[in-house]
Amino acid sequence: INKRLAKAEKLEVVSHLASSVSHEVRNPLTVVKGFLQLMMQNDLPDSQRKGYLKIAIDEVNRANEIISDYLTFAKPAPENVKTLNIKEEIQHTLNLILPLANMKGVKVETELEEVYTKGDDQLFQQCLLNITKNCIEAMPATGTLKINAEITNEQIMLIISDNGKGMTKEQLARLGEPYFTTKGSEGTGLGMMVAIKIIASMNGKLSVKSEVNKGTNFYIRLPYLK
Ligand code: ADP
Ligand code: MG
Q: Whose CA is nearest to atom 12 of ligand 1?
């Protein structure tokens, strides 16, 4: 019964993600279509055409960001739950995020024990990616992203931390709320919502500590598979 429940829950998460992403991507696409139609006018001044083009390109970028935050790798394949080697999953995610870290001059440090849990590797990597990307984005050049995995009290404790700009109490309270972003048109406000859902689907828990101008720690507790 537990197995079936876990699977049903997972199905629900995945189908929710899939239906949200199609909904969210449709908005910018509608805007793009509208501006492309406007550009079909014959006597359109060049400056106006350029303005429309810019909006269309910005909206395509936005659609791209939404897809990245929601489902970079995940195909809707909920039967993909298997034993995950946390160390390997983190290293895999780091390969993806390293170019961004390098570009920003952010150092990455890891201390990873060999630990195992159960989950969908693609969803788990999505979750790690969304959190580490936020950490890197919160840091000026010369920051350090730290990732730590260990066993405490028969549970996996994964700590992801940055020494970036941190969050106020109000911001922290809204973390994970859909569309909450402090990044203006650069942000989607969807990354943390997705990350939290994925952790919950793995029977895990996320807690966050943050201090303005000091940094942020993400604590992810996950069931430990012996
Ligand atoms: P987005 O990154 O598109 O803004 P997210 O859901 O990933 O959306 O994050 C929501 C908001 O939470 C961010 O805009 C930022 O204000 C805050 N936040 C998340 N992670 C961090 C972090 N590591 N340091 C500081 N602020 C963060
Ligand atoms: Mg984000």
A: 175
Confidence (pTM): 0.86
ipTM of the complex, rounded to two decimals: 0.99
Share of the chain above pLDDT 90, in %: 67
pLDDT at 97: 92
Return the ligand number nearest the Cα of 172.
Answer: 1
- Report the pLDDT averaged over residues 197-219: 95
Residue bearing the CA closest to ligand 1, atom 23: 135
Residues in the chain: 226
* Ligand minimally distant from the alpha carbon of residue 164: 1
Model confidence pLDDT, tens digit, residues 82-102? 999 999 999 999 999 999 999
Ion ligand 2 residues within 5 Å by Cβ: 134, 191
Q: Please state the atom number of ligand 1 nearest to the C-alpha of residue 135.
A: 23
CA of 153 to the centre of ligand 2 (A): 30
Task: Please indicate whether residue 162, judged by its CB atom, sits closer than 6 Å to ligand 1.
Answer: yes
